[in-house]
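Handout, section B. The chain below has 262 residues.
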Amino acid sequence: MRQRDLIPFFVMAFLIAWGILALYMFASETMVQLFGSLTGEHPLFYLAVYAPAIAALTLVLYRHGIDGTRRFLSRLLLWRVSIQWYVLLIVAVPVVFYAAALVKEGAYDTLFPFPSVLTYLLALLLMAIKGPIEEIGWRGLALPLLQRSMAPIWAALLLGVIWAVWHLPAFLLSGTPQSAWSLTPFFVGTVALSVIVTPLFNSSRGSILLPAFFHLQLINPLWPDAQPYDTWLFVVVAAIVVWLNRDAMFSLQGAITDVLPK
């Protein structure tokens, strides 16, 4: 893959997602008549969410064929990383949500907002096949290509801004999950999350699996709704992660730049 492949990647990722949401904004009556109202569980919403993955897979297939695509997807099997990162993924993320919920009134109305364990597992499954798929594009292709010319901290910040902007139309359209969220905390939080996941990505030799798991933890329906206070705590976590990984974050040495593992 070449660094200039970032241009068609971002164009496709934005065109698919923004195109679907724009149709619902500017031709809403026609779209509702043809496909029904757009919700977070609508197939077209899933298609919009899958846009970064579709763009990445299309480019990898075009450049490297079936074998290259297989090698690219083998990064979904990379899971080895230091125990500290698993502590962050499994312990620190829910701690942020529960700590932030202490500040938000009503966030602790119930610790288990589901009628049964099966209902929760179904909700978790639906989340697992939605947001985490984005990471095939964002961390699978975009981040390693960006790190070819800039240190991880700058790649993380730039990709975080692009990632946040990509979500913007969803805030303007009723029926999407983002329509009920505050824009500024989401934007800042997305950049912070991009910073947190970047050293995890590099430490895991370019794993797509672990960033996807991190993404799933962020949208795990079990955690309390602590917006926007959880955002500010994740900014603090991002600052700590950068400090602890400062040598690697400000140097190209150790940055993963290969889209296809050697």
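Note. The CA atoms of residues 38 and 175 lie 6 Å apart. Compare this with the example in section A.
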